[in-house]
Design brief:
With 94 residues, the protein is an alpha+beta fold. It folds into two domains: 57 residues, no CATH class; 35 residues, no CATH class. Helix content is 47%, strand content 13%. It has a three-stranded antiparallel β-sheet, with no helix packed on it.
């Protein structure tokens, strides 16, 4: 799980339900329980967003594994690659 700022050790912390880009700019709107929140610093917000994106990138199989899945899907009429990518996207939304 990504955190805004330092990872909490104890105490009250908030889990964001949404982090969205505003007008394609380097500005973000974050919400907790449908209410906008402001992070400790902009750098912490960027760090948290990068953590989320990096987690998703690591969840994908290597490109070699993906190519192998696609080749086997073509031969066998299966959808292993498509199912794998869909699961990563579902488990790690942007």
């Amino acid at each position: 799980m990504a955190y805004i700022g330092r990872e909490p050790q104890i105490g009250n912390f908030q889990v964001c339900d949404a982090i969205s880009v505003v007008n394609g700019q380097a500005a973000y709107t974050m919400q907790v329980s449908s209410v906008d929140v402001i992070p400790e610093t902009a750098g912490n917000a960027e760090e948290a967003l990068q953590t989320i994106l990096n987690t998703r990138a690591r969840a994908y199989p290597t490109w070699q594994e993906q190519m192998d899945m696609q080749y086997k899907d073509l031969l066998n009429g299966t959808t292993t690659w498509k199912d794998t990518v869909a699961k990563v996207k579902l488990d790690n939304p942007k």
